[in-house]
Amino acid sequence: MHQAIVRFNIMAMIIICVVMPVPAAVADTDPAQWEKGMTEPIRKVVVRAPVSGVVDNIPIEEGDAVKKGQLLVSMKNEMEKLDLERKKLMWKDKTRVNSTRVRAKILKEMYKNNKSLYQQSGSISEEELRKSELQYQKAKSQLKRLELQERKERIEYDIAVQRLNKKKIRAPFSGVVSEIAVETGAHCKPHQAMLHLLNPEKCVLVCNVKGAKAAKVQVGDNVELQVYSGGEWLDKKGTIVYKAPMVHSASGLVKLKARFDNGNNQIIPGVKGRMLLQ
């Protein structure tokens, strides 16, 4: 009887092992096949001051989502506004060019009439004709000079517009303000860091792997990823978007980048992750 019970228990365990699924922890992929790495946003930038100036207003805060073109920081711009207005007045003033254009037109008609009189009847002298021609040519040259000056004034006005616009720093792309490095009232030098902006919707997992494994991977390949977030590993589908063109001489490793979607902002860029390479 005892032997029958033992045989029954053994058969039952065999059936359980065959029928029941293997727990996920047991069926997990060999850890040696996972390459560890760190996540990064694809688009991240340090927004710097294009010109020197004093910070006048910062209408955003750290963590704010901003749209492309949205105002991030404005600097004092009273002098730039006055300069723009002055150059606008100079450019829009058409008094001299218009009067010279009318004068040149009148002198041209006078010269034509005098030339006709000289050729047909000789009622005016050659000296008077040349004097008339000289007056017309001088007016014509003056008009060209004024028209050229008008174009220069338009260019100066456009430059003033650009100078004024540089006092307003706008978002180069839609994203999230991760850090603000200046305060209202602070004086900024050209190229000084003002804030950090990133777009977390598209991220990459950056891994450094052995050359032998990297040799089997090509840009465009799809790979399985796992990203650690909220105390658990989350599965992600990735695509290789970068493979270093050479092996790092000191480590013998090759850098790989796999892009994955993070449209729901479930992953905070900067957390650890891993890439499955067979």
Task: Name the features.
six-stranded antiparallel barrel, four-stranded antiparallel sheet, 278 residues, Elongation Factor Tu (Ef-tu), domain 3, 2 domains, alpha+beta, elongated
Task: Explain this structure.
- With about 280 residues, this protein is an alpha+beta fold.
- The protein has two domains: about 1-75 and about 175-275, Efflux pump adaptor protein, beta barrel domain (Elongation Factor Tu (Ef-tu), domain 3), CATH 2.40.30; about 80-165.
- It contains six helices and twelve strands.
- The protein has helices at about 1-20, 25, 80-90, 95-120, 125-165, 210-215; strands spanning about 35-50, 55, 65, 70-75, 170, 175-180, 185-190, 195-210, 220-230, 230-245, 255-260, 270-275.
- The strands form two sheets. Strands 1-8-11-10-9-12 form a six-stranded antiparallel barrel. Strands 5-4-2-7 form a four-stranded antiparallel beta sheet, with no helix packed on it.
- α3 (about 80-90) runs antiparallel to α5 and α4 (about 95-120) packs antiparallel against α5 (about 125-165).
- The longest helix has about 40 residues, at about 125-165.
- The radius of gyration is 38 Å and the shape is elongated.
- The two termini are about 50 Å apart.
